[in-house]
Design brief:
Layout lengths: L9 H20 E2 L2 E2 L3 H9 L6 E3 L3 E2 L3 E6 L5 H14 L15 E5 L4 H7 L14 E4 L13 H16 L3 E5 L1 H4 L6 H18 L2 E7 L17 H7 L2 E7 L6 E8 L12 E7 L6 E8 L10 H17 L5 H8 L3 H11 L1
Parallel strand pairs: 5-9, 5-10, 6-7, 6-8, 8-9
Antiparallel strand pairs: 1-2, 3-4, 10-11, 11-12, 12-13
Helix pairs in contact: 7-8, 9-11, 10-11
């Protein structure tokens, strides 16, 4: 008795032919590291993908690599955990829309120990806040053995990728960037890190929020992209970016300012920053939305005496370190290079 052969009809042949034609055309579009195709085709293909939804108001959308930056102790981690909690529970934060559905969040915490984390989300280490199981916190295992012939950095990256694959999380929050790569203010280090994160985002269809520090800055000036350490490389590769500033008149207040956006217009600019306060009602440390306002109202007002002291410090620093660059002087004194140059020109 012969073996019955599976029947292959015209529809199957056409489907197979169409598949080969598509593969051939796709290959023709590849030009080295580029994909080259007509603009209309890009749009047709883009139509098949969902419209990005808001994860944290207009500040962070799905499938974006977003950077949140601020000076030390202004609450970056507090807000990042609050955003993680919001997405993992499917509840919006007052003042910020959440359009995405409830889902898993991978929070890489390179800042706090588990005990410090517990303290923030409890009342004197009792009556603990209950997070959703979709909020997955990750920290470094100090007892982990790094395989031979592998650097700490490469093992860190491979472990990060393994965590993404095994949890199937599409939301990634990194607190903070400097742990993945030291000296991110140096473009030499910032560039490969941002390339890696962009590739990671594309490979696994992720939404990434990365926290970063600012170097010492002039608190009388509005926050700009130049206040982000390694700003040129970090900002260029980021899809969106926002910053946290401190109110000079009230140390409990913070303001949130939008620095870069691609999925929306800039809404929270210097004339319309989001005013919040840090509070801990019961057992959850958080940002509480208060109002909108002008950034200028929260900046330090510079007196004539302050200006004179700064100019004197500039002159003294230049005298003691004549080979110091304008950039290094500005960094040490918490001002900008233009101010340094004008002062030195006037003095000379």
């Amino acid at each position: 008795m012969g073996i019955e052969k599976s029947k292959i009809g015209i529809p199957e042949i056409l489907l197979e032919t169409e598949s080969h034609i598509k593969a051939f055309n796709d290959k023709k579009e590849d030009k080295g590291i580029f994909k080259v195709k007509p603009a209309n085709k890009w749009i047709e293909e883009a139509k098949t993908r969902p419209i990005p939804k808001k994860l944290f108001g207009e500040l962070w959308f799905e499938n974006e690599l977003c950077i949140m930056f601020a000076d030390t102790n202004l609450g970056k981690s507090i807000l990042a955990v609050q955003i993680s909690n919001s997405i993992s529970k499917g509840y919006f934060i007052n003042g910020f829309k959440l359009e995405a559905e409830k889902q898993s969040v991978l929070y890489f915490d390179f800042e706090l120990s588990d005990k410090q984390f517990e303290n923030r989300y409890s009342i004197n280490f009792e009556q603990h806040y209950i997070f959703d199981n979709d909020f997955i916190r990750v920290e470094i295992n100090p007892d982990a053995d790094i395989p031979e012939k592998e650097t700490f950095e490469s093992y860190l990256f491979s472990s990060l990728e393994q965590s993404i694959i095994e949890t199937n999380s599409k939301i990634l929050i990194i607190d903070n960037l400097t742990y993945l790569k030291n000296e991110t203010e140096n473009s030499k280090n910032a560039l490969p890190l941002m390339k890696y994160l962009k590739a990671l985002k594309s490979r696994y269809n992720l939404s990434i929020l990365a926290l970063a520090h600012t170097p010492k800055r002039d608190l009388s000036k509005p926050i700009t992209k130049n206040d982000l350490a390694g700003s040129k490389m970090l900002i260029n590769f980021a899809d969106s970016c926002f910053a946290i500033g401190e109110c000079h008149n009230d140390k409990q207040l913070r303001y949130i300012k939008q620095i870069k956006a691609r999925n929306t217009e800039i809404i929270y600019d210097t004339e319309n920053v989001v005013i919040c306060q840090i509070d801990k009602p019961q057992n959850f440390l958080q940002f509480e939305f208060l109002d909108y306002g002008s950034e200028q109202d929260h900046l330090r007002q510079v007196s004539k005496e302050d200006k004179e002291i700064l100019e004197q410090n500039i002159i003294e620093l230049k005298s003691s370190n004549p080979n110091l660059s304008l950039r290094d002087m500005a960094k040490q004194l918490g001002t900008n290079q233009m101010k340094i140059k004008r002062t030195l020109d006037k003095h000379n």
